[in-house]
């Protein structure tokens, strides 16, 4: 019978050490691998407020100041693999009336740059500006694949300090010496959006007031839209935020008391649609037996948020997975005011909407070429990303009628009561009470 040693021998330790070294050698990154750069941020100050508008205006002011500051590239670094990323961000704002017509809209384009380049190269970025049409002279390796051949008109442009303004005014080429490993804004300009533009997200808001009962209906539908992606139908609207303002006197209706604090009443999810089949009919009756919820949504989550002074309906993305366009989603708010609740003299007439779409544009702005003159043997990796941010201000439609409950199962059904029998005209009338005739004759 052969015995084995419990403690490892010197040969065992040597074999384990060699295997560990071989494992480290196998996992060593190669020069051709895609490297991930992590942002190194230093937190200096913290700001807080209960007003979303104040935070937004403060952020815009800080961005304007940073854009106007003078910045110079410092000591050049050396990278294993050169890389440059250009982000094209569109910002669109629209005012929409209660009929769904656009009364006013505007768009702005902001271009950001993030470069990891050795030494101190000069970069030329070409944009699809109409004044540059037919004057492009770029190398084959500098061309960026695009999905459209449209040209745009740039208006009210502003340049960062690193861009050569004289060259841009003459040739409309963005020529600069980029900052090292810093994401900053290169260029911002205005464009004129089309008049007959079809918005990716169609929203309609209706508010009905019947005595002390208030019902708010917000319908959301995704339409066809433009996209740079190869699979256009797979580009959803993301981070959707729909804000319905709530008067200060009604806030307590949307708050709930918890163990140590007050919280917000969350929405209940109910699917919208017409009643078809026995199962859905039974479901509708079950919903009719239960009391209606304060907030009901077909997708996402809605609750009151103090920072906005509104009920915020948040949806991760639309269309949802395995869902096509032109499908309507619904949010219903049912408010029953008590006798002591006050009705404001004037209600806010507008609903605010914000969302974003990746790989899409509003202005049709495109980066056609990126040329780097650093004399490197291996060309740098070039990335171009698009992001469109939308913001609406939608006017509400006020009515004094509630939508019929038979059209939608989100409103609870009420049991049908038999109609009151009408008195028959041929039936004999009841005899008058004693003394009624005598009193009438005495009066005569």
From TrEMBL:
Recall the taxonomic lineage recorded for the source organism: Eukaryota, Metazoa, Spiralia, Lophotrochozoa, Annelida
Q: Which residues form the MHD domain?
A: 81-397
Gene Ontology BP annotations = clathrin-dependent endocytosis; regulation of endocytosis; synaptic vesicle endocytosis
Question: Mind telling me what this protein is named?
Answer: MHD domain-containing protein
| A cellular component term, taken from the record's GO annotations | synaptic vesicle
Can you name the source organism?
Helobdella robusta
Region Disordered: list its residue ranges. 403-444
Query: Domain of life of the organism in this record?
Result: Eukaryota
Q: Name one GO molecular function term.
A: clathrin adaptor activity
Gene name of the encoded protein? 20217054
């Amino acid at each position: 019978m052969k015995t084995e040693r419990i403690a490892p021998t010197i040969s065992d330790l040597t074999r384990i050490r060699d295997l560990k070294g071989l494992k480290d050698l196998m996992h060593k990154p190669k020069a051709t691998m895609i490297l991930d750069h992590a942002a190194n941020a230093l937190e200096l100050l913290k700001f807080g407020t209960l007003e979303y508008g104040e935070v937004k205006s403060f952020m815009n002011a800080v961005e304007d100041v940073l854009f106007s500051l003078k910045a110079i590239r410092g000591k050049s670094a050396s990278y294993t693999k050169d890389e440059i990323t250009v982000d094209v961000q569109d910002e669109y704002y629209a005012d929409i009336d209660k009929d769904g017509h656009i009364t006013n809209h505007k768009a702005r384009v902001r271009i950001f740059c993030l470069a990891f380049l050795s030494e101190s190269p000069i970069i030329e970025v070409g944009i699809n500006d109409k004044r540059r049409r037919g004057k492009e002279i770029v190398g084959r390796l500098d061309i960026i694949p695009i999905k459209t051949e449209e040209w745009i008109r740039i208006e009210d442009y502003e340049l960062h300090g690193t861009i050569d303004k004289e060259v841009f005014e003459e040739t409309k080429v963005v020529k600069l010496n980029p900052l090292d490993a810093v994401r900053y804004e290169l260029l911002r300009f205005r464009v004129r959006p089309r008049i007959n533009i079809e918005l990716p997200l169609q929203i309609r808001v209706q508010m009905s007031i019947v005595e002390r009962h208030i019902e708010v209906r917000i319908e959301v539908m995704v339409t066809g839209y433009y996209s740079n992606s190869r699979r256009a139908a797979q580009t959803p609207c993301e981070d959707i935020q729909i804000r319905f303002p709530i008067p200060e006197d009604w806030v307590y209706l949307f708050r709930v008391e918890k163990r140590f604090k007050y919280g917000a009443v969350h929405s209940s999810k109910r699917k919208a649609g017409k009643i078809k089949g026995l199962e859905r009919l039974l479901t509708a009756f079950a919903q009719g037996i239960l009391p209606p919820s304060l907030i009901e949504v077909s997708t996402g989550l809605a609750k009151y948020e103090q920072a906005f002074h509104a009920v915020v309906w948040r949806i991760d993305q639309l269309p949802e997975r395995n869902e096509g366009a032109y499908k309507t989603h619904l949010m219903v708010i049912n408010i029953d005011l008590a006798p002591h609740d006050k009705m404001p003299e004037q209600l806010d007439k507008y609903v605010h909407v914000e969302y974003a779409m990746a790989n899409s544009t509003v202005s049709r702005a495109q980066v056609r070429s990126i040329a780097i003159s650093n004399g490197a043997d291996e060309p740098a990796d070039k990335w171009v990303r698009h992001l469109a941010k939308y913001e609406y201000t939608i006017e509400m439609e006020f009515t004094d009628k509630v939508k019929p409950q038979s059209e939608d199962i989100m409103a609870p059904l009420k049991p049908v009561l038999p109609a009151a029998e009408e008195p028959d005209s041929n039936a004999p009338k009841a005899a008058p009470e004693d003394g009624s005739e005598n009193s009438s004759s005495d009066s005569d």
